[in-house]
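Q: Structure tokens for this one, please.
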Amino acid sequence: MIYFLLAFFISLSLVIGQAAISLILGIFFSVINEKFSLSAPKINGTNFLKAGIVFLGGTISLSSVSEITVDYLPLVSIYVLFIFLIGFVIGKLLKVPKNHLILLVAGTAICGGTAMAALAPIIKSKVGELISSISLIFLLNLIAIVMFPYLGHFLGMTESEFGIFAALTIHDTASVIGASSIYGEESVVYASVIKLGRTLWIFPTVILFSLYFKSQEAEYELPYFILFFLGFVLLGSFIDFNQDALFVLKKMSNTLFLLGLFFIGLKFDLKTLRDLSIRPIIFALILWLIIICLTIVVFYV
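A: Here is the predicted structure, written as tokens:
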């Protein structure tokens, strides 16, 4: 019964073909699963998103990646460093618990749950601290996927402008792709390349925090999917894919995005947010709103 119901929701998600709907359907299924204790299988939706990004690489030319990277990598670096600086200042003022502060700042500055999961063993974070932090960021990302496309249209953003906006203001790669895919194909290209630039900052961040905490037992997963993404970009640049091949790659990428968002929604747990104290919630919201407002003022006003 559970597999039939799961297959029905997944099929509905793919037929509708909207990122936000896939995420909402996943959350709705998680509510049904919890209410009736159906024991749905645990599937990591992030892996589908990573695979989708890799296939997307085959549809992007090397010249486009180079141009966008050269133009925006310095900006991305400034953003990441600014978020760390302002985040730690605000967090200290609000007296946010140390581990929650580090996890939420890193998740906001770099790549959401991936950065938090990488830093958690280094700072010796408790499981509850990590889960509640990821759930809080997930809720903000859910709001972004649903609301940001409307905000983009209201502000009159082009597809490329919205891709930049999404990549700079949304935490997780999955949610960046989800929001930008609603806006348009060009938006996805800009969003994915610029967001991957932010994700690259996980390397120096993990190293610096490892040195600071002098942890010899830290284990973390580096985002190797970035290398596969760049590999597919190179492949697509040297092999001139015809329109049919590009269509297949885009279709596979989009399908993987939809599946990833559905399974990410399936993992949402409202209980962990209810157990979270008010300080981290206020802190994460204030920091996020500062970044959104700053980005709008700098680029679109």
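A few notes: The mean pLDDT is 81. The first helix runs from residue 2 to 16.
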